[in-house]
């Protein structure tokens, strides 16, 4: 992995969506999809379409034997997400939002939980019904690019849950036509940097002041009907 003095800067890149000041509107999900020149074009949302990877709930055993549930987030998770945030340490919050943010407003939680599954997609990891981690993606322009972010409650960090969520989120992104994911992280956030570096996808790094942007290239999913 490149060291901090071997990365380029991304000072001229578009603004980051997931670390923007809370409440700033994102892309209007009722808009028409942005045209994409690349082929195949990402598939538009299809509520009645076939299930994609990440659509179903799964039980996953962590390396320490803890069995957790990983499933798409839903609007019913708003209160649980507010509660999840209340138990995060200030350091964890800072690593995710790059600013103090001690409480998550219900409106913010609603923004995070009411997702269309196409422009915005998110997974929740739960234990006994309590949210212990979330992973999300938000498409950029062009929509073959997406930003991703991860947030685990402190007691579930460094236990392999980040990897479980990252693998599933990037699988889901790839199945939805995303070809490149980016994650912005503090330059000393080694767990996050290693998390994406160790998934097996080609990664590149750029740096702007104290932030490292990690870019992962995702291979296109096999064409439908192609031999597996
Ligand atoms: C970042 C985060 C998602 C990582 O998930 P995690 O489950 O805690 O990840 P792990 O601790 O298992 O570490 C991931 C990798 O980093 C490595 N790692 C952990 N701590 C490290 C350190 N201090 N130095 C170097 N590598 C480290 C681990 O060995 C692991 O590598 P491996 O997969 O090759 O074993 C999680 O810690 C978190 O939610 N942090 C707070 C919020 C945040 O930072 N979000 C990222 C901004 S989007």
Structure description:
The chain is of the alpha+beta class and 228 residues long. It has a domain at 57-177: Aminopeptidase. The chain has five helices and eight strands, in the order ββαααβββαβαββ. The structure holds coenzyme A (COA). Coenzyme A binds next to helix 2, strand 5, helix 4, strand 6 and helix 5.
Q: Report the span from N to C terminus.
A: 32 Å
Cα shape: globular
Percent of residues in helices comes to: 10-25%
CATH homologous superfamily identity of the domain at 57-177: Gcn5-related N-acetyltransferase (GNAT)
Please state roughly what percent of the residues sit in beta strands, choosing from under 5%, 5-15%, 15-25%, 25-35%, 35-45% or over 45%: 15-25%
Strand line-up of the largest beta sheet: 1-2-3-4-5-6-8-7
Short description:
This protein has helices at about 80-85, 90-95, 105-115, 160-175, 190-195, and strands at about 60, 65-70, 120-125, 130-140, 145-150, 180-185, 205-210, 210-215.
Keywords:
228 residues, alpha+beta, Aminopeptidase, 8-stranded mixed beta sheet, 5 helices, 21% helix, globular, binds coenzyme A
Task: Compile the SSE list and pairings.
Elements: E1 58-61, E2 67-72, H1 78-86, H2 90-97, H3 106-113, E3 120-127, E4 130-139, E5 145-152, H4 161-175, E6 180-186, H5 190-197, E7 203-208, E8 211-217
Parallel strand pairs: 5-6
Antiparallel strand pairs: 1-2, 2-3, 3-4, 4-5, 6-8, 7-8
The structure holds coenzyme A.
Coenzyme A is lined by residues 92, 95-96, 149-152, 157-163, 183, 185, 189-192, 194-195, 198.
């Amino acid at each position: 992995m490149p060291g901090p003095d071997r990365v380029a800067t991304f000072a001229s890149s578009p603004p980051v969506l997931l670390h923007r000041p809370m409440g700033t509107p994102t892309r209007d999900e009722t808009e028409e999809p942005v045209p994409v020149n690349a082929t195949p074009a990402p598939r538009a949302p299809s509520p009645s379409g076939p299930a994609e990877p990440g659509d179903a709930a799964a039980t996953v055993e962590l390396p320490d034997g803890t069995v957790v549930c990983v499933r798409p987030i839903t609007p019913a998770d708003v209160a649980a997400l507010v509660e999840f945030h209340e138990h995060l340490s200030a350091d964890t919050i800072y690593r995710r939002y790059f600013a103090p943010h001690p409480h998550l407003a219900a409106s913010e939680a609603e923004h995070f939980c009411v997702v269309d599954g196409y422009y915005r997609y998110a997974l929740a990891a739960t234990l006994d019904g309590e949210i212990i981690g979330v992973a999300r993606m938000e498409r950029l322009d062009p929509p073959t690019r997406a930003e991703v972010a991860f947030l685990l409650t402190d007691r579930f960090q460094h236990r392999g849950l980040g990897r479980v969520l990252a693998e599933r989120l990037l699988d889901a992104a790839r199945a939805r036509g995303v070809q490149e994911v980016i994650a912005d992280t503090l330059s000393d956030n080694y767990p996050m940097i290693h998390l994406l570096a160790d998934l097996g996808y080609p990664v590149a790094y750029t740096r702007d002041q104290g932030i490292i942007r990690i870019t992962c290239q995702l291979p296109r999913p096999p064409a439908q009907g192609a031999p597996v």
